[in-house]
Amino acid sequence: MFRVMLRMEIKPGMEHDFEQVWLKIGDAVTSHPACLGQWLSRSLEDGGYYIVSDWVDEPRFREFETSARHLEHRRQLHPYRSGGTMTTMEVVAYLPGEAGSAGAVSHDAWEAAR
Q1: How confident is the model over 29-79, as pLDDT tens digits?
Q2: What is the CATH number of the domain that holds 39?
Q3: Close Cβ partners of 14 (under 8 Å, ≥ 6 residues apart)
């Protein structure tokens, strides 16, 4: 499995709008046949955002990375962004936790908790 982690710095005051747009346009990424899933997290330390996506392999991610749908996705998020970085990695091991999928939170439950 191939993992991509983006760190995004969002312009002050635009965080809520960024989150809403990210959710609205996320299927541009997750509907790609090689995408295994994607997560959006906000840092409790510095307020930056981390976007993690998992892919079946690097070549299929790179194919997506240069696609028109990815460029459009980036274009829609660009107005909120003030900086960021990208890190890629190969997942070499996974140890499931005791809670397993019980620890997963659905989008609807997450929205209700906000």
Answers
A1: 999 999 999 999 999 998 899 999 999 999 999 999 999 999 999 999 999
A2: 3.30.70.100
A3: 79, 80
